[in-house]
């Protein structure tokens, strides 16, 4: 009985989770009038929204830009967050202050940082570039990664590191050779979360990238909004192009993501 109820609940949850994607696929096969009529199924299937979406905006280039920015930002976040999480977990009261300061900074609305970040990027010639977007997103996601990794570092017994120090390892070497291999599940989970955050980011992308050569898919989706009409069918097709690769990645990495976050929840 319990198994049947559990299957029913999981089935209902799956329907609720996939319904928006199914409806999005339906919208991508409709004309403007058909979209406004509502309903789940198109009155007449139209495939022209798909090639038209790629002609309206350079979707292929924007998809590449989104992945380059997300991967670059994730790598940068990991390089900074691992030693920072080590400090917040091992430095006692000072580490707790640093941890609180990072989380407090992340709570501020991102819009307040747009203007100073723009002038900083302009000063180093990184406006309107995927490198600049990766740099900004990578730094912006450091507090999240540190918050996720802090629990993993705390789970590593300090006695293991102390034994390594007695054998002659430095603190940096102990972090690299002792702590880092033990927190790999947490690092994978934190990296996936930061990847999704960077991939979905819109504010920095629309503020710092004005040309199609540097714009990401989130910006491209907003370009289907015309002065008088909205190309819902084309926008739906472009949305599917944006989310399907990430859905595939999430499904493939769900075990690592859920397992890593579950392990880090215990401190």
From TrEMBL:
Bilayer topology term: Multi-pass membrane protein
Q: In which broad location class does this protein mainly occur, judging by the first location in its UniProt entry? A: membrane
Query: Where is each ABC transmembrane type-1 domain found?
Result: 63-253
Cellular location of this protein? Cell membrane
The entry's keywords: Cell membrane, Membrane, Transmembrane, Transmembrane helix, Transport
- List the signal peptide residues: none
* Annotated TM spans: 67-89, 101-121, 127-149, 178-198, 236-257
Record-linked InterPro entries = BP-dep_ABC_trans_perm, MetI-like, MetI-like_sf
Record family assignment: Belongs to the binding-protein-dependent transport system permease family.
Name this polypeptide is given: Carbohydrate ABC transporter permease
């Amino acid at each position: 009985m319990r198994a049947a109820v559990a299957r029913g609940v999981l089935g209902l949850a799956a329907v609720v989770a996939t319904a928006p994607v199914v409806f999005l696929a339906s919208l991508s096969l409709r004309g403007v009038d058909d979209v406004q009529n509502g309903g789940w199924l198109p009155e007449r299937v139209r495939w022209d929204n798909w090639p038209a979406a790629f002609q309206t905006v350079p979707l292929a280039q924007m998809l590449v830009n989104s992945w380059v920015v997300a991967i670059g930002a994730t790598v940068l976040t990991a390089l900074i967050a691992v030693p920072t999480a080590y400090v917040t977990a091992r430095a006692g009261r000072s580490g707790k202050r640093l941890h609180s300061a990072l989380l407090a900074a992340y709570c501020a609305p991102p819009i307040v940082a747009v203007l100073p970040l723009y002038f900083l990027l302009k000063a180093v010639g990184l406006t309107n570039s995927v490198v600049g977007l990766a740099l900004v997103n990578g730094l912006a996601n450091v507090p999240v990664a540190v918050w996720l990794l802090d629990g993993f570092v705390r789970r590593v017994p300090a006695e293991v590191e102390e034994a390594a120090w007695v054998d002659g390892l430095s603190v940096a070497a102990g972090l690299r050779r002792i702590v880092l291999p033990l927190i790999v599940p947490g690092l994978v989970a934190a990296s996936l979360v930061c990847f999704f955050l960077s991939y979905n980011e819109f504010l920095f992308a629309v503020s710092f990238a004005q040309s199609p050569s540097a714009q990401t898919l989130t910006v491209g989706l907003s370009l289907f909004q015309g002065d008088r009409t909205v190309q819902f069918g084309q926008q739906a097709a472009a949305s599917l192009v944006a989310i399907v690769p990430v859905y595939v990645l999430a499904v493939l990495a769900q075990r690592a993501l859920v397992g890593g976050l579950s392990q880090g929840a215990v401190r």
